[in-house]
Q: What sequence folds into this?
């Protein structure tokens, strides 16, 4: 009798819940006591919640719904919130914190793009015309490598494919504004 391995598939709601937990959302504070008959005003908590929810998937309407805005007015609420300077600043600060935690800086991203853009195809081959082994390739060459076909022994490289050099160069051109239409 064969054993069947069961894999748990999670749905969209579960994925979003996990993403919210990973985004380190601020814990909900208990609601302050209020006199009877008075509505709860989430003037400060809902925009902050919207900013945190927006970073999960970049969908303003869904972020507004998850932040507690009514489904019928979520589109206009998202537009209004995304244009509000305080909310935009909150989103920018939260995304900056996420990038800092991940160790992402603009300089590092530009360096990685430059490694791909300036990788020379002949450097992947030895003097005999055969591809170098992975052990002989330096870090810049490995960073610019899309795939390598390796023999069964695990050492002999049969073929290599560098990453898209033109795409990386295009990104650098756009970043530095080297062509008039990108300015």
A:
């Amino acid at each position: 009798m064969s054993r069947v391995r069961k894999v748990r598939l999670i749905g969209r709601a579960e994925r979003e819940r996990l993403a919210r937990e990973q985004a380190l959302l601020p814990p909900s504070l208990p609601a302050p006591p209020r006199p009877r008959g008075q509505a709860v005003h989430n003037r400060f908590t809902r925009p902050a919640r919207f900013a945190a929810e927006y970073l999960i998937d970049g969908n303003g309407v869904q972020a507004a719904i998850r932040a507690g805005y009514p489904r019928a007015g979520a589109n206009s609420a998202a537009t209004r919130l995304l244009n509000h300077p305080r909310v935009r600043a909150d989103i920018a600060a939260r995304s900056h914190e996420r990038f800092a935690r991940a160790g992402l800086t603009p300089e590092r991203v530009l360096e990685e793009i430059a490694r791909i853009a300036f990788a020379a195809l002949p450097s992947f081959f030895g003097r005999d015309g055969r591809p170098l082994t992975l052990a002989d390739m330096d870090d810049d060459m490995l960073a610019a490598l899309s795939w390598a076909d390796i023999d069964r022994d695990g050492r002999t490289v049969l073929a290599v494919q560098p990453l898209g050099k033109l795409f990386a160069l295009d990104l650098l051109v756009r970043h530095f504004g080297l062509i008039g239409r990108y300015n």
Observations:
- Strands lie at 145-150, 157-162.
- The radius of gyration is 25 Å.
- The first strand starts at residue 145 and ends at 150.
